[in-house]
Amino acid sequence: MAAQEIVLEVKDISKTLGGKEILKNCSLNVARGELKVLIGPSGAGKSTLLQCINCLIPPDKGEIVLEGKTLDRTDKKSLCAFRARVGMIFQDFNLFDHLTARDNVAIALRKVRGMGKKEAAERAMDELARVGLANRYLLYPAQLSGGQKQRVAIARALAMDPTVILLDEPTSALDPELVGEVLSVIRDLAQHGMTMVMATHQMDFARALANEILFMQNGVIIEQGTPAKLLAESATTRTKDFFTKLTSELE
Amino acid sequence: MDSLTVIINALPFILGGTLVTIGAVGAALGMGLCLGVPFAVMQVYGNPLMRSFVSLYVWFFRGIPILVLLFLFYGFFLSLGLPVNPFLISCLVMGCTSTAYQSQIFRGAILSLPIGQMKAGRALGMSDTQTIRCIILPQALRISIPGWANEFSILLKDSAVCYVLGTQEIMARTAAIAARTHEHLALYATAGVIYFVLTLVVLKLLRRLENKVRVPGYGTQGNAAFKGA
Amino acid sequence: MFDSAFVFGELLPALNRGLVVSIALIVPASIIGFAGGLALGCLRGFGTPWMRRLGDWYTAIVRGVPLAVQLMMIYFALPKIGIYFEPYGAALLSFILCSAAYHSEYVRGALLSISQGQIKAAKALGFTTIQTVVLIVAPQAARRALPGCGNEIIYLIKYSSLAYLVTCMELMGEGKVVASDTFRFTEVFIAVGAYYLAMVTLATWLLHWLERRFRIPGFGAV
């Protein structure tokens, strides 16, 4: 895989919400071009960890370093600049409901990147084409299927030329028959060397594509390693147990 | 003179008052819109000081009858030695109360948006101001149109009490002619019809606006129909 | 600036007199207005087509015409056909007629919001129509209608000041007399405003308390 240049460092993130410790000293390093997959039971803190990384949920303590520069959370300007470089895909899409697919992709280009209207629209069309939705550009979110919404959300993140993309269970809110189209877009990104951290329950996807799997439970990353190592026939890991349980439930 | 003749003779004069009524209601609605939106934003996203200021303002102007406020402002202007213009005081009082009501309409609309909208804006690197302006408000204002229509109809009816200060609107002119001709029933019924028609016309216009700015499939029952399409 | 002889000797006694009249307007108007609204709402929800149409028209007219105009019509017009009212009676009647229309909107909305499934389920259990209404529909509809009807009563507290327009000497009327006599508009109307604020705040607390008291977990507003 790619040279081990660390793009994103997350150091000792902790978060307490309503008296409950949701994250306990979570750390991870992401190398350029790497796909890290977070797995674990619901309520393990995967989503909180991802949202702490770009400070949508401000962590109580810890440090986030992007390409060697530590994020200063108190400075609004640098926080916005940081978020513009870190893409985020949400479980429930969060497309802007009053904007067409194209405008959803274009709005941040205009408001954050300062692009002109025409230029932003052209760039948005390119990104929509990349996720296979060029012919849907005039539709509003309510007129798109769940899978299409999530692909627009991915196009929206890609348009910002992100250094790294965080994906928070991107397929969990989708009907089963729509999961495939979203996963294939993400697979494409991984194969083209996009740096990503993804929380998911799609175990086969994780096994096939992840450079590293992180297993979380009760706010702690308790296991991490390559899929080959954690999911080997002979392995006695929590990850393997979880994997087996999920697979047998499906059958 | 019979009632019909009185009405026909009085109609031009009373209809002239319609313009005054519309002017006052329009000014008050405009003031309420210009202040109500920032007040709502302050109450939802502001610091504790801003929030308590807006809450206090809303409590005050929603808790006191407009009739009392009219005389209160009138007395206040008098005691400050300011010129007392009934029309301006009427606009100001209705504008202040409408600000309170409209801020609560917009606040409700903002709070009804999914929290993910704000998160998604922030995640793209937009500042909070940008997210509120480009993402939250365009949606919140659309949702607010029915509430806003209702606020118009309330304000129009409230404007009828402004005649106590001598504002020459529909009610004042009706009362003046009624006192002279003693055709109270016919004249007040005429005034009632004018208010009724005004309400109907403006509500129809607002419904047209609502349809025009509607986002397909959004905020309607149609939402579910597209799911998994 | 603060003139205690004026405030305690003149202003407050007058306002207290007015307060009694205001309350004597608000309480019966709320109760009878609500009862009327309940009947009208049921009529508009479940009546025969022409009853519904009549109810809808009544409501639309009352809601489309300022209360001040209605008040004037009742006060000045009814004597023409031989019905004479004291100012108090005219004010009370117009408040009742008006708030019944507004209440009926909330009652009707609440009734229609109860799903057919609830009614079918009750019938399937062998309930009579009356049992269904009393045991299933009413408890749910009452909770749905409570916020709207409560707000209507809060509105009525404020709009009771309109009785002054037909020379009924309630809170507003007493205040206006003192203000005109002494020309102390600001002080007088700050005091009058405070009386109304107190009434409205009290009623709002009471309404919120009722809403909390009767809340069913997970049974939200429509």
What report would you give on this structure?
The complex is a heterotrimer of chains A (251), B (229) and C (222). Chain A is α/β, with parallel strands linked by helices and 251 residues long. Chain A has 9 helices and 10 strands. In chain A, the strands form 2 sheets. Chain A has a 6-stranded mixed sheet with strand order 6-7-8-3-9-10, with helices on both faces. Chain A has a 4-stranded antiparallel sheet with strand order 2-1-4-5, with helices on one face. In chain A, α3 (101-111) packs parallel to α5 (146-158). The mean pLDDT of chain A is 92. Chain B contains 9 helices and no strands. The model of chain B is unreliable at 220-229 (pLDDT under 50). Helix content of chain B is 81%, strand content 0%. With 229 residues, chain B is mostly helical. Chain B has helices at 3-45, 48-63, 66-79, 86-112, 115-123, 128-158, 170-181, 184-212, 222-226. Chain C has 222 residues and is mainly alpha-helical. Helices cover 80% and strands 0% of the residues of chain C. Chain C is built from 8 helices and no strands. Chain C has helices at 4-46, 49-64, 67-77, 87-113, 116-124, 129-159, 171-182, 185-213. The model of chain C has no long low-confidence stretch (mean pLDDT 90). The interface between B and C is large, with 38 and 38 residues.
